[in-house]
């Protein structure tokens, strides 16, 4: 198990310029790389990128695909959290989704949305029951002090994609108790491709404090190998 680095580098910066440039452009076996423009309309569109623009919850954009929604549904059911913290609010559809699911499951749960720019949040005032919005910047962890003393069990989701491992260490040191969850959405496959050595080293630094929950860490592409439980 590695030594904890003084300060984790922000792996979110390593999308294509990683410390370990193992990425090569994919070779397309079943179609030409250069598609003729006079057949533009017939071009296949099944390469598998997630079309997030399609997903919404009660009219608000929700950047979680159906597999991920199903996985969170099951996690809410199992964990019965009293607090869900999500870093990254954007339209706020995800906060409303978590609040509505918690209500359907009769959970006594508050949903806390954190963003450095809440200006894009579109949750109407009439829909704010059970939801708290707070401004904070993942790059400045002193702004996270407001998050201490939240009720447990706690589900903490990083969907802001900034300074993730220092945020993770802050939550492990200051917030999470045994059984609580820390989720890294979306990013692990990128880091595994672009900076695999740092990724392994940084995850290894949490070997004594977190484990990966193999039920949810295999449940959807967005959660791929990114669901951790406080030991
Ligand atoms: C992917 S969106 C969140 C989507 C939302 N969680 C959902 O599922 O619908 C990312 C958000 O992170 C916020 N963000 C980016 N950098 C941040 C930082 N350093 N601190 C806090 N929030 C940040 C952006 O303002 C943006 O609203």
Textual characterization of the structure:
It is a single chain. With 231 residues, the protein is of the alpha/beta class. It has a single domain, classed as Rossmann fold (3-Layer(aba) Sandwich). It has helices at 66-79, 93-104, 164-174, 188-194, 196-204; strands at residues 56-57, 60-61, 83-87, 110-115, 131-135, 154-158, 181-184, 210-212, 227-230. The strands form two sheets. The protein has a seven-stranded mixed sheet, sandwiched between helices. Strands 1-2 form a two-stranded antiparallel sheet. A hairpin with a 2-residue loop joins strand 1 and strand 2. Helix 4 crosses helix 5 (196-204). The longest helix is centred in the first third of the chain and has 14 residues, at 66-79. The model has no long low-confidence stretch (mean pLDDT 90). S-adenosylmethionine (SAM) binds at residues 62-64, 86-90, 93-94, 115-117, 120, 137-139, 159-160, 162.
